[in-house]
C-alpha cells in the first residue's frame, strides 16, 4: 500500500502512531461549539460574531483568523445578508424641531441621547402588517423603549415614549427622530417638554441623520427572520419579535463594544459613575457621499439662476 501511494513505510508508521496535538484537540472543541451556536441561531453569525461569542461568552482563547479557518474548512457560513429597505409616508407637519444631534452619535454615558423611529414588518405567510417602534440609547444601542402595534399611528410612538420614560423617569435626553407625522404633532412635542426631553429631528430627506435607529431596525428584522423562518400568523410574529428583542439585548455581540451584547454594556455602565467610552469611528465615505450630493444641488441651483 505504501509503495502504491508513494509513501515511505517510516512516514506511514509515524502517522499511524502519532497522537493529535493540543492545537488539533482545541480546534475540535472550537468546532463543536461553533456548530452548537450555529444550530441554535440558524447560522446567524459570521466569523466576527462567532469569534466574539466564543471569546466573551464561552471563554475560548482563539483569534478571529482561527475561527475563520475552522468555519471555512467545515463549510459553516452565515445566512445573514443585508438588503436595502425604504418606506415613507407623506405628511403635513404641525411642529418641527432643529437637528440637535447633527449626526454626532457618540454618547459618554447612558440616557444622554435617544433616537426613535417606526418600521413595518410583514407576516410572510399572510402579508399582514405589524409596526415596531424602538427608542435606542446611543451610548450602548440598548432599546430603552419598544412597542408593537398593527397600526402606524401616534398611539404607537406615544406608547414607546411612555415606556422609555417609565423605565428611566429621571432621564432628560435629546430625543431624536425623523419628520414622520407621529413626531410632528403638537401633543407629542408637549409630552417631550413635560418629561424634560429636548426634541431633535432629521433634516428633510436625510435618513442618515437617524442612522443608528435605521440601522437597528434593519439588523433587528434580519435577525428575526433568521431565528424564526417559518412565521405563519400575527400571533407568531409578535412572539418572534419579542424573542428577537431578548436575543438582541442578551446574546447579539457588537464589534464596537468588544463583542459584548448591549444588555451587558448597559448593566456595566449603570453600575459606575465613570462608564467606559466607546467612540464611533468617523465614516468618511458617508461624509463624501453627502458632500457630493450637496455640490450637485448647488450646481443645479446655479444653472437655474
From TrEMBL:
InterPro entries this protein is in?
HTH-like_dom (IPR025948), Integrase_cat-core (IPR001584), RNaseH-like_sf (IPR012337), RNaseH_sf (IPR036397), Transpos_IS3 (IPR048020), Transposase_IS3/IS150/IS904 (IPR050900)
- Membrane-spanning residues: none
Q: Could you provide one GO biological process annotation from this protein's UniProt record? A: DNA integration
Physiological role: Involved in the transposition of the insertion sequence.
Q: Which GO terms describe its molecular function?
A: nucleic acid binding
List the protein's name.
Integrase
Q: Name one Pfam family in it.
A: rve
Describe the location of the Integrase catalytic domain by residue ranges. 106-269
Range of residues in the leader sequence: none
